[in-house]
């Protein structure tokens, strides 16, 4: 059964009634408005009961910023990668995560089948050009897979993982992917929108195979 929602007209009524509560206050409700408010209260009670069991985004346990393509490829980039290229990225991601797990209490689930919430944000100079804002499409597939492998997530099924994808604007040369992991909760924990931050250009290192995928041992500008 679909959960009830406010219509546009109901939202306008709610706005009007709430505005009347602000100082200096408005005129008393007339008979018709009293009926409207009573109906809105009844519908709100049903909505509250319907959503009582819904999970909310809880406390943050991880914030992880990654370079697109070389650490968080889009689904389009991932599709055309060679198997050995994917393997090299997996190794790099796992190395970062193992270090974070070792120094961050509560990050690993130690095998517990516990649901968590992942919010993936792609910061780009041209957010309107991103057609598909799904987690995998904007660069979250390989980081999420790594979170599962390293025990930070119990799995990537809907029963174990709530996904949220966002595309936001950043300055030129600072395109990156922000991966945030949260606990789930019965009541939302205030967090705010994803915040942009400066990410240093990646310095390519490693052997011949690593340099082949990353483009050589030098800094590479990001678009």
Give your account of this protein's structure.
This protein is of the alpha+beta class and 223 residues long. It has two domains: 8-50, no CATH class; 56-214, Holliday junction resolvase RusA (60s Ribosomal Protein L30, Chain: A), CATH 3.30.1330.70. Helix content is 36%, strand content 17%. α4 (83-103) crosses α5 (136-149). The two termini are 45 Å apart. The relative contact order is 0.17. The model has no long low-confidence stretch (mean pLDDT 89).
| CATH class designation of the largest domain | Alpha Beta
User: What is the spatial order of strands in the main beta sheet?
Assistant: 1-4-2-3
The CATH topology of the largest domain, please?
60s Ribosomal Protein L30, Chain: A
Return residue spans where pLDDT drops below 50 for at least 5 consecutive residues.
none
| Strand-residue proportion | 15-25%
Fraction in helix: 25-40%
End-to-end CA span: 45 Å
Give the tags.
60s Ribosomal Protein L30, Chain: A; 223 residues; alpha+beta; elongated; 4 strands; 6 helices
Helices and strands, with pairings:
Elements lengths: L7 H13 L10 H20 L5 E11 L8 H5 L3 H21 L12 E9 L11 H14 L11 E9 L6 E10 L22 H7 L9
Parallel strand pairs: 2-3
Antiparallel strand pairs: 1-4, 2-4
Please give a quick description of this structure.
This protein is of the alpha+beta class and 223 residues long. Helix content is 36%, strand content 17%.
């Amino acid at each position: 059964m679909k959960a009830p929602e406010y219509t546009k007209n109901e939202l306008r009524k709610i706005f009007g009634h709430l505005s009347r509560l602000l100082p200096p206050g408005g005129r008393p409700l007339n008979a018709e408005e009293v009926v409207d408010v009573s109906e809105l209260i009844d519908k709100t009670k049903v909505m509250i009961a319907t959503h009582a069991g819904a999970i909310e985004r809880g406390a943050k346990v991880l914030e992880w910023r990654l370079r697109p393509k070389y650490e968080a490829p889009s689904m389009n980039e991932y599709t055309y990668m060679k198997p050995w290229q994917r393997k090299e990225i997996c190794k790099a991601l796992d190395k970062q995560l193992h270090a974070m797990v070792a120094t961050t209490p509560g990050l690993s689930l130690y095998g517990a089948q516990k649901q968590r919430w992942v919010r993936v944000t792609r910061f780009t100079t041209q957010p309107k050009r991103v057609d598909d804002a799904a987690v995998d499409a904007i660069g979250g597939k390989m980081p999420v897979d790594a979170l599962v492998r390293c025990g930070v997530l119990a799995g990537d099924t809907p029963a174990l993982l709530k996904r949220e994808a966002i595309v936001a604007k950043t300055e030129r040369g600072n395109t990156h992917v922000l991966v945030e992991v949260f606990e789930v909760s019965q009541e939302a924990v205030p967090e705010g929108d994803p915040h942009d931050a400066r990410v240093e250009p990646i310095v390519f290192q490693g052997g011949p195979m690593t340099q082949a995928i990353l483009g050589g041992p030098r800094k590479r500008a990001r678009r």
